[in-house]
Design a protein that fits this description.
This protein has one helix and eleven strands; from the N terminus they run H-E-E-E-E-E-E-E-E-E-E-E. It has about 150 residues and is mainly β. It folds into two domains: about 60 residues, no CATH class; about 80 residues, Beta Barrel (OB fold (Dihydrolipoamide Acetyltransferase, E2P)). It starts with 10 loop residues before the first helix and ends with a strand.
Length: about 150
């Protein structure tokens, strides 16, 4: 049986990656060297959830970078992921109401948002009917292929 090595966290690397998140506006960044891997993620502002009244633990601000320990939205079975790299738009045009908001009921095929790639506006549609639990991206933000955009219940 092999002994487990204690987890050693390179605090300077964490701080550097967190600064990169701030400077670039990205929501997460990952670095890997050999078998060592670290992912730093910022919880989107639209994902703020109220804590139960009985909870006594302090809650960190949603915009503060943190090492992701909890299950990521990418692993949620209701996550709708970006099929391409581009820029996401939550509304059909500037200053218009968004296609959907948390709590809205959607039907299969309904447009949830648009991802612009190479000057082409690509509608991102609901794969099934459900309710919008959370929108994980901000209007005008860059998105990566496979990045979770929205979570449906």
């Amino acid at each position: 049986m092999t002994a487990r090595r204690p987890l050693v966290v390179d605090e300077e690397l964490v701080r550097t990656l967190a600064r990169l998140l701030d400077e670039t506006g990205l929501t997460e960044i990952e670095a890997q060297s050999g078998e060592a891997r670290i992912r730093i993620a910022r919880a989107p502002a639209t994902q703020v959830m109220a804590a139960p009244a009985a909870a006594a633990a302090p809650v960190a601000p949603a915009a503060a970078p943190a090492v992701a320990i909890a299950v990521s939205p990418a692993d949620d079975p209701g996550a709708v992921k970006s099929p391409m790299v581009g820029t996401v738009y939550l509304a059909p045009q500037p200053n218009a109401a968004p296609f959907v908001q948390p709590g809205d009921r959607v039907s299969a095929g309904q447009t949830l948002m648009i991802v612009e790639a190479m000057k082409v506006m690509n509608p991102i549609t609901a794969p099934r009917a459900g309710a919008v639990r959370v929108v994980l991206v901000e209007d005008g933000a860059p998105v990566e292929f496979g990045q979770p955009l929205i979570v449906l219940d």
